[in-house]
């Protein structure tokens, strides 16, 4: 591999460091470099154990900023080889520490129709990640949200349009590069076609090769050419190219023939999290762990049991599942990636400091929240017409209480009388149609249904009480009814009878504040939907018709 060309651009001194470091590693130390575990503790005893294994990277979920920063500083200072340190920075700096800024998800950014907002997201995410010692962002998501039923892509994406995804991703990546942090475009060969989640099975990108090249292939080619240092490989099959349903993480055809040879990617490849069923169910783990490296991935992300996986890798090397030549190639890329970040030189560990991005947060929310339809002319919601509001929260997420209380408080500040729906326990609680119509001037459904891993759908789940419950939208012709979604933008599929629909994309407090301003007419709607909220999947249907 040529370490002087994209995306490494190493000089002779850096290349010498890569070669000398590689030659100075034992076989076990080389194997350690392949592993990118998740950290479960910041205790020194645990960290020293990780260090003794010679791991190549380390990921922590968001913690107290100072503690995260001190942990990474300790690991970098005491490790024989500097570490890649990562965070999921898709929405902002909140992916690296609890003090970090929750700016907005990728779909909210895309809804402003101004790619400069993707740069702002990248700037906030990378600067706050860097402040706690992160040098590697597991972002951006460059999947295409072609199937509205997909439970994992959804608002994590920049939408369904190829050019919009490319333009926003480039801005985000550029912001990271400007801050000296690397990105990882994901999830190769592309999620968003299937309606299933690779956390639970090997999902399928079912496009033909020609249609893949016009969509996902174009996205990856442009972002590789742009200089992305890493590609995160999904547990996603692409049978039209590989001829089988093996996940890309275990497919030499997809990793070497397509990604390396056809797309010309010279950078680091890392698996998505390997405890996922999409990886584990494809092959015995004792074989899959070494084979994913042999197939073409350079690093293995997360583990069921780290020590066991390391032993599997050693056994795979001795059995010939993984060759020494391929091991050296993978470790060379890992070291070259580290050198491209300047990790072979002195690492500067400053204090974890954060700016106040409140103005930018509100501005994003203002320009992204989208009015999907208001065919009944219900807007704006006013105390004169809609004083008594029945507030119904849809979803069962940890953030439910916060979202409900925030919406309720914002409406009550404006003198609305709010009744929060309580699920009926028997038929005597239902009341009559007349009493329902007399009690309420409006019904507001607040959907806090987030896309998340390890779930099969992001659909509405009703409290039905045998089809009679007042959670069900039977009353849309009796009382003006509105749907306000702080997540999934496709709820019209389950609520087509609701004539006023607003997509806010995010459930962060600044989005809730701005959404209520939109609902009450204090601010106009400016967002442009990056997907088809009417769930017609025009592009996916067009591609399938071509196939």
Please provide a written account of the structure:
With 547 residues, the protein is of the alpha/beta class. It folds into two domains: 12-340, Glycoside hydrolase, family 3, N-terminal domain (TIM Barrel), CATH 3.20.20.300; 370-525, Rossmann fold. Helices cover 39% and strands 12% of the residues. It has helices at residues 12-23, 27-33, 44-52, 65-78, 106-111, 116-131, 162-178, 209-214, 216-226, 239-242, 252-262, 277-280, 285-295, 306-319, 324-340, 358-368, 383-386, 400-412, 433-439, 509-519, 538-546, and strands spanning 35-36, 57-59, 84-87, 136-137, 182-188, 203-204, 230-233, 236-237, 268-271, 300-301, 370-374, 388-394, 417-420, 442-447, 481-485, 500-503. A six-stranded parallel beta sheet has the order 2-3-4-5-7-9. The chain has a six-stranded mixed beta sheet with strand order 11-16-15-14-12-13, covered by helices on one side. It has a two-stranded parallel sheet with strand order 1-10. The two termini are 36 Å apart. 52% of the residues are buried. The model has no long low-confidence stretch (mean pLDDT 96).
